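Task 17 of the worksheet. Students: predict the tertiary structure of the chain below and write it out as structure tokens. Keep your answer in the requested format; marks are given for formatting as well as content.
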Amino acid sequence: MEDPPSYYCSNFVSSPTPSEQEEFLSPTTLYVAGRFIHSAGPPAPPLYELSHSVGFLKDTDRNVRIERLDYSVKRREGEAQIAARRRHIYDLKHPVRVTCPTFPYHAEPTSRKSLCTFGLESFRPKKLSSTRGYRIRRATHSLDHQLVRRNVLFSAVPARDKAVRYEWSDAEGQLVAREVDMSDLMTLVISAMMSTGERDALVSAWMSRIWAELAKKQ
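Model answer:
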């Protein structure tokens, strides 16, 4: 799927309202289809859109734009239509190695509603294991514009269950999502209530992890 559905889309981006800032989202299942991320269940318009097709992300790509699509019903010429408002939430970055980046992959927030800058780093959950997990760390910018590692935002570790690729936990170690492959679709089963900003960060971190994995295979 390379083109968005035939819904009326507005490129206007507004500041979040107080009610939006307080919104909490129920658990859901998300899956990737081309450049779009959908919620599983009855056919519905996508929730997120990326500038690149996820399955074709490469090591040579440097910047991936991710937008959240918010929907409302509007009347145009007397007919009700679903209107999508695009909210640019993060730019996912993959700097060239010669710049000695703090993180091989990181995300820069582009909205006041976005949680923070964060970076992706790999680690071994067990010392003698060959498997690798990922930590998503909050980051700040130093005076020389380098990223500085801060506390952990999320962790993704390989699961014992072969049906689950990674288990995602929050900063307190509480399980929030499981990453699985369902019918050859990259899928994230979110099991925790979270704010819109938290889910945006989790989805963006998920995309960064997939990008890092795909780049290694090339």
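Marker's comment: The CA atoms of residues 28 and 56 lie 25 Å apart. The radius of gyration is 18 Å.
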